[in-house]
Amino acid sequence: MHLEKLDLNLLVVIDALLRTSSVTVAAAELNLTQSAVSSALKRARAHFEDEILFYDGQKMSPTPFGQSIAGIIPEMVMRLRALSRMRATTDLVSLNRQFTVIASDYVAAVFLSSVSKRLSSEAPGVSLAVVPFSEDSMDRFNRGKIDFMIGPSFWSGPDLNRAAVFEDGFKCVVCKSNPVCKTGLTLEGFLNAPHVVTNFFVGHGKSHFENWLDEQNFNIKIAASLPSFVVLPHYISGTANISTIHTRLLKQIEHLEDLVHIDPPCDIPPLTEYLTWKDHQEFDVEARLLRNFMLEIAETM
């Protein structure tokens, strides 16, 4: 078997088929026709001299050989994608590429907005596509189809590379008419108040704040659970609700005159956001340039 006889694009198709167990789903993911995927599978079978996948009722199942390569091909495909993007590039100024980053709207507002502003003047050919945390985006990141992820340490596994971007504290936001503005916020009052929190609907779906509550064995009443940090204050106005938000987000609510922020009644450990990337990205010179650019900006925060 000679490498020159293997079309490396076949590995991309086999990777999708082994993950999805479906020609239809794999074709949609790869933006190919079903006949093109079936043709690629036929060619791969001829090359490897194995069926690789076979129909088992309504879905496809891997042969023993298919199972043996299922753990190898994803990493190979990620490295091939990184290799295909490699250029003799030494600076961001000459780049013309869009990078995709998984991040919350909080990180997009307080950090990535600064990155985008700097890019617009220093590297106008580079753009950012920010996508939210979801099962799909996390899967794409793990397969090397998304460049970066920015989030707390509990979002990234031990097999990922990461660097701290910034740290942030917490404040409680309440409506001006809330009695705690005059009486003060006690721990008992804090725990008994209705809270507005975030929920990313990925894995356990909890934020840094909610994880801290669990660690303290604190139970709170949830008035609303939202997939966004930035809209939280709008669920506070005119209510007795409390929202515990990141200090850096306070600038986003300065224009809301009926809201005020107060200190939490106890110490909440600060949150550290991390820039995270996969090993294969070490081969991607362009991604490394942007990574260093973002970390340079992070040092100024």
Q: Please, could you describe this protein's structure?
A:
The chain is α/β, with parallel strands linked by helices and about 300 residues long. It folds into 3 domains: about 5-70, Arc Repressor Mutant, subunit A (Orthogonal Bundle); about 90-165 and about 270-300, D-Maltodextrin-Binding Protein, domain 2 (3-Layer(aba) Sandwich), CATH 3.40.190; about 170-270, Periplasmic binding protein-like II (D-Maltodextrin-Binding Protein, domain 2). Helices cover about 40% and strands about 20% of the residues. It contains 11 helices and 12 strands. The chain has helices at about 10-20, 25-30, 35-50, 65-70, 75-85, 105-120, 135-140, 180-185, 185-190, 210-215, 285-300; strands at about 55, 60, 95-100, 125-130, 150, 160-170, 170-175, 195-200, 220-225, 245, 260, 270-275. The protein has a 5-stranded mixed beta sheet, sandwiched between helices. A 3-stranded antiparallel beta sheet has the order 10-7-11, with no helix packed on it. Strand 8 (about 195-200), helix 10 (about 210-215) and strand 9 (about 220-225) form a beta-alpha-beta unit. Helix 2 crosses helix 3 (about 35-50) and helix 6 (about 105-120) crosses helix 11 (about 285-300). The longest helix is centred in the middle third of the chain and has 18 residues, at about 105-120. It is elongated and about 75 Å long. The termini are far apart. The model has no long low-confidence stretch (mean pLDDT about 85).
